[in-house]
Amino acid sequence: MMSARAVSLPTQLAPARAVARGKRATRARASTAVRAEKMEVEQKCKFTAVPFGYFAREQLDHKGPRTNVDRGDPHDFSRPMVKGMQGGRASCGSWACSEGGWDSPNPRGTTEWFYVFSGAGAVTDPDGTPHPFGPGDVVVLPKGWLGRWDVHEFIHKVWLVCEHEDVGGASRRPVVMHASRLVPDAPSSGRIGNVCYDVGCVKVGGWSAAPGTYVIPERSSTEVFHVVDGEFFVTDGPPDGASARRCVRGDTVVLPEGWNGRVDVVGKSAARAVCCEVSRDEARAHGGVAPGAARPTAEALAASRPPPPPPPAGGFAPSVRAKTVMYDPDQYDPDANSGRTAGGFVPPARSSGGGGGGRPTRVTRGDDGVIYDPDQYDPENAGRSR
């Protein structure tokens, strides 16, 4: 009979391994159960509409910790809604992130619009100008922007990113505006809107529509909007015209290019929404606005905002850093950022065309050819290093 001292190491570890296997199996079953309970919304219509519950925190996929951080331990969570809009140039979905901060030194290859559900954060320009945002804010990060991200309180948002040509002369400054200021007061009749950002191919704003029926001819653009108030029905137009969906506060709706139909605002209150419209129009610094629509410019909005609070401890500082920062390869291109020094990144030289900054040098594409924003990049579609 073997003594206890003679028992091999694998035999001694067998009970522990069995326990570990049991724990892994339990976690796997729990994970499968969560996936099985994931909300799916059947889309019988030619447009897409989902309730807020579709983007609830427990419905988002945990993508793991970010690897390019210098503050905190932020983890990414996301769920796509519609990919490949406008011929593969645009995508939308939801993203969330826990507290932390990281540099984003590469000029953006896309323009991003997002609406903040909850939480607090800020993006900071290379010159140290912060742009804080919180619940109810509409934010635009123009193509070519670079700087820093800081999440001060677990952030949750719905987003749209769009790839487009360079916009000569357009500001690269982010735009932040609360929905209560962007969405116009309810009209007595008809539909009115405001625009806070417009470069022709990307327009961001808000609209209000009084109770009534609105016939929409075939669209030449794609519109993504988030409902902040009211109730209405969206119905497909001819030749199908039999499918409709009720939309209420908290819903996110995508009306694709080529769609036509009808919107019926019901009840006594107006329907109100924040929106982003992407089209094949030529990119230009100041696009046109529908007649009668108010058009505060991005510069005017920025000037009307109260002075932002100073960055919190650990926020962006343009001074020399004490140590080198590690960057996520999904956001950092050493060839494009070869001018970066150990003390921080150097803003790219201005182009001779007056575009307000260096030409963006990369766009993140998944294996499926879809454009992704690096901040919401889906590692399942292309191997993201950790």
UniProtKB/TrEMBL annotation:
This is (S)-ureidoglycine aminohydrolase cupin domain-containing protein. Pfam families: Cupin_3. Residues 86-158 form the (S)-ureidoglycine aminohydrolase cupin domain. Residues 285-386 are annotated as: Disordered. Signal peptide: none annotated.
